[in-house]
Amino acid sequence: MAQRNILRLLQTVKTGYSISGRSYGVNVVKNCRSYYSKHLYQCCRQMSQQQGTPPQTPPTGPKILSTLFPQTAIDAKAEEEAREEKQREEQEKKEKEKSNKRMKIGMYVFAVSAGVMAVWTVIDFGAPETDAEGKVIEDEFSNLPIVEQYFRRMWKSLTYYQKIIQEPSAQRLLPDPLKYPYIQPKYTLVLEMKGLLVHPDWTYKTGWRFKKRPGVDQFLEQLARHFEIVVYTADQGITVFPILDALDPNGYIMYRLVRDATHFVDGHHVKNLDNINRDLKRVIVVDWDPNSVKLHPDNAFVIPKWDGNDHDTTLLELVAFLKTVATSDVDDVREVLHYYREFSNPLEKFKDNLRKLQEIEEKDKEEKQKQGTPAVKKWSPSLFQKK
């Protein structure tokens, strides 16, 4: 009997009741959960007593409901997810409102600070100068309205400071060439420091150190006989001077030009050779950065930047090239530099020309020995001309 009641109950839940042509199966399930649960428990208890099985406690509501009424479990889960989603959206909305509020406060603070700074700039830079007794010194703006006076003086001061940053500290960076009886080299060699003569290196143990390039001592010693050597760099003097003191104890470097001697162009410190007070026909700039010499590319000899390799021989090769230029008594070095600038590796091209020159010299010696007459040799121009 109890088993038949359970089957009838399940059949009723599955099919639902049709009242007035409308299906109320789901509504009956939703509205009569407690009734069906209780009735089902009683039926199961009767069956267990008849079979001698001890009664068990009724399963929990959600478990039996999820078994008998899966749609109810799905609806409850969906409601829980919707509630969590709503809470998450509300939390995000609150965080966004707080972020916008903080942003507005920050913008207000920035605007007020900028306004105060602008007022201070006008007052500080636009105020007239005074003498030692505190009396106002009249200038070209003294006859203008007071507000216009301050703005014009401020603009003049800002323009002056901009000029200091962008232009060299002096129009003549080097003194006049030496007069007799002192010896003034015919050519001027302008060198970069970092990446050419030294390489900056940093470690946790030692901090910043500058590594000397292989061959730099021979480089300076041999070229000082033929060139007026000048170090021209965009680094600050407080960094450059101690390094050069240790690098050049013999004083082969005659002059040192640092950042305040450069032009600030397009965000880059550029070496302006117009201010070094030397004939540009006899000036050679050796650098690894083309932007540093973009105002005078015809005087530039650009080589790769040294990365700290201990087996580097570039300076020794450069010595051979520069000594050849000096001993050949070239009138305008820009013609020579222009020729070698056409090659991706100018020093390699120079070595190739030097090898060809040696072959020509060997042939000339052989002809001289055979003929017994001196051979005419024009070897110097062959290093600097196309064939």
From TrEMBL:
Subcellular location: Mitochondrion inner membrane
FCP1 homology domain location: 182-325
Oligomer and partners: Component of the TIM23 complex at least composed of Tim23, Tim17 (Tim17a1, Tim17a2 or Tim17b1) and a Tim50.
Protein name: Mitochondrial import inner membrane translocase subunit TIM50
GO term, biological process aspect, one: protein transport
SUPFAM superfamilies membership: HAD-like
Key words of the record: Membrane, Mitochondrion, Mitochondrion inner membrane, Protein transport, Transit peptide, Translocation, Transmembrane, Transmembrane helix, Transport
InterPro entries: FCP1_dom, HAD-like_sf, HAD_sf, TIM50
One GO term describing the cellular component: TIM23 mitochondrial import inner membrane translocase complex
Transmembrane residue ranges: 105-123
Organism: Culicoides sonorensis
One Pfam family in the UniProt entry: NIF
Composition bias, Basic and acidic residues: 361-370
Domain of life: Eukaryota
